[in-house]
Amino acid sequence: MSNGKAMMGQLGGQPVLILPESTLRTRGRDAQRNNIAAAKAVADAIRTTLGPKGMDKMLVDSIGDIVITNDGVTILDEMEIEHPAAKMMVEVAKTQNEEVGDGTTTAVIITGELLKKAEELLDQEIHPTVITKGFKIAKEEALKILSESAKSISLEDVETLKKIVITAISGKSVERASPKLAGLIVDAVKTIAQKIGNKIVIDKDNVKRVKKHGGSSEETELVRGIIIDKEVVHPGMPKKFENAKIALVDAALEVKETETDAEIRITSPEQMQAFIGQEQKMLKEMVEKITASNANVLFCQKGIDDLAQHYLAKKGILTARRVKKSDIEALAKATGARIVSNLDDLTSGDLGFAKLVEEQKIAGESMIFVRECKDPKAVTILVRGSTEHVVDEVDRSVEDAIGALASAIELGKIVAGAGAPEEQVARKLKKIAEKYSGREQLAVLGFADAMEIVPRSLAENAGLDPIDTLVALRAAHEQGKINFGINVLSGKTVDAYEIGVIDPLKVKIQAITSAAEAAEMILRIDDVIAASKLEKGPPMPGMPPGEI
Ligand code: ADP
Ligand code: MG
């Protein structure tokens, strides 16, 4: 370990300390090795989850809560990673998840493999700057190769859209339910897709997901409207309306309490009666304003006085109170209602419509379903599964699938999956590398090799011989079969489009971009200076205290 004294100045022969004594410091090759080792460890940890035959991980946190998942970003999130370079890998997964919603494992394992190749180059005394330059060239070329081989898709091509969803959820625990699930996810995303100019924009927030365990994942359903996790507020109210006319109010149906310091002197029973009477009258008037609009359903964001509830029940209005702001907003998008703050403003023009509003018991809990809205701009997927752990994993799969679908539709481009695009990039990059001189060429070649981690892992995870499979895959690509990937069921190489394994171009672009950038960032570091956390016990593994 070379803990240098560079941070120590000299003053008349006396060393000058510029960092606290407890600072941990590693430099040069040690810092690089250490960072690369940590990043590779993270990649290795999730490599076995890649693809339809990938395994799941069971994560137990410090208080014993369990998460069972196959989802890269969830695993890394739950792992409570400490090492700074490893944390950068977690960032790669998070960025991938936020930007495109799928491909997190792919992004992380490519990063790990790029660093592994970089380490081999460092061992050959190639400077990190040369390596990062080569990687940058390779990344740009890789993106070009991918874009050139991509195919266009449209919102109308439902069959292809379903294949994208099935590819995104295969290997997750919901695989069994996938044809039906794929249909409803495509339906949901198509419903909320908006044409803005000649672009299609998908706001994923407009597909709400409500999780309920106790049932099978087959029972997952699409509601063309919104599910409100509330009961009808008063037992005397109807629990169901066909052709519902819906009022959304974000003010309370209450008479404001008199302020504490305002004194009201009531000197006679008549006065008391008059006072109460006044309150009653005000509440009654509020309810009358609602009935005057012709509404038969009311969702109120604030509270509703008991007496107002009673009047509403008498008028036969299905009512829920203290509905979440986000739900009220979603209801507005789904039903076309306008949210009203002042009851005086409420007119029939503000009401929204739904073919059916009903309170329903799901797994023993009452919820209000606002169904069959006309042309809804927000919809809900009721995610079901037998236990909480299953529901959570189904929900993550649905989220991935929505992400993948949105990415595919927004860019309008897809590529073959099953390791085909990565193999294609690897092969073409090797040709392109010849254009570059010695050391840079080695870096481009390293990048090319790193791409093959995807087909290799798919093969390994499916219990196939990775060497034989890669040899067959390379041979197919050599013959110009650029969409050939690995059929993990048969173990043969096949045209991925033919077996319906399709990935969005955007997911692949994002994975390669963030992998290349993270690898570059980690490679540029040659000095790690960490403030020590004394109370946290031993220092990071492989990091001796700096002698500063
Ligand atoms: P990620 O987090 O990167 O999305 P996944 O575990 O979802 O990881 O695996 C995605 C990879 O699995 C993609 O390369 C995709 O093309 C591939 N894949 C999905 N379904 C199949 C299949 N039936 N056969 C072969 N490869 C598949
Ligand atoms: Mg995926």
Kindly describe this structure:
The chain is of the alpha+beta class and 548 residues long. Among the domains are: 28-151 and 416-527, GROEL, domain 1, CATH 1.10.560.10; 226-256 and 266-375, GroEL. It contains 16 helices and 23 strands. It has helices at 28-47, 72-78, 84-99, 104-123, 128-149, 158-169, 178-192, 269-292, 306-314, 325-335, 388-411, 420-433, 438-451, 453-461, 466-478, 505-524, and strands spanning 9-11, 14-16, 24-27, 57-60, 66-69, 151-152, 194-196, 199-201, 207-213, 221-223, 226-228, 240-249, 297-300, 318-320, 339-340, 352-362, 365-371, 379-385, 413-416, 484-486, 493-495, 502-504, 527-530. Strands 11, 12, 13, 14, 15, 16 and 17 form a seven-stranded mixed β-sheet that branches. A three-stranded antiparallel β-sheet has the order 6-19-22. The chain has a three-stranded mixed β-sheet with strand order 9-18-10. Strand 13, helix 9 (306-314) and strand 14 (318-320) form a beta-alpha-beta unit. The relative contact order is 0.19.
Write the layout of secondary structure elements.
Elements: E1 9-11, E2 14-16, E3 24-27, H1 28-47, E4 57-60, E5 66-69, H2 72-78, H3 84-99, H4 104-123, H5 128-149, E6 151-152, H6 158-169, H7 178-192, E7 194-196, E8 199-201, E9 207-213, E10 221-223, E11 226-228, E12 240-249, H8 269-292, E13 297-300, H9 306-314, E14 318-320, H10 325-335, E15 339-340, E16 352-362, E17 365-371, E18 379-385, H11 388-411, E19 413-416, H12 420-433, H13 438-451, H14 453-461, H15 466-478, E20 484-486, E21 493-495, E22 502-504, H16 505-524, E23 527-530
Helix pairs in contact: 1-3, 1-4, 2-3, 3-4, 3-16, 4-13, 4-16, 5-12, 5-13, 5-16, 6-7, 6-11, 7-11, 8-9, 12-13, 12-15, 14-15
The structure holds adenosine-5'-diphosphate and magnesium ion.
